[in-house]
Specification:
This protein is mostly helical. It has 6 helices and no strands. It is globular, with a radius of gyration of 20 Å.
């Protein structure tokens, strides 16, 4: 009995393999809100910081980049006065402010 050919799977755009198996894993996997702000600012790129989406509060859903354009003083508040545990938020604000200096 002849074997049936195995159908070829079409590659879906962006489906190269899981990032977990990729030795060059993305920075997003490496960054955690529980890391220190100093550690995060060393690993976070300016693009990472601009794209970080604020997860709560008045500016929930906005990116740090958008907030920088709309209300730059809010970045200083996130660095100096924000009392939450999310260090990614603090670090993103700090990276953006440091880049503006």
């Amino acid at each position: 009995m002849p074997e049936e050919p195995v159908p070829q799977q079409k590659k879906v755009r962006g489906e190269v393999g899981s990032e977990k198996s990729n030795p060059k894993s993305s920075k997003k996997e490496e960054l955690s809100e529980h890391m220190s702000v100093e550690e995060l600012t060393k690993k976070m790129t300016l693009d990472d910081a601009k794209a970080y989406i604020i997860p709560m509060g008045v500016y929930k859903g906005k990116t740090i980049g958008e907030l920088c354009l709309e209300k730059p003083s809010a970045l200083t508040w996130y660095i100096d006065s924000y009392g939450g545990r999310n260090n990614l938020l603090r670090a993103a604000a700090k990276v953006l402010l440091d880049a503006a200096k």
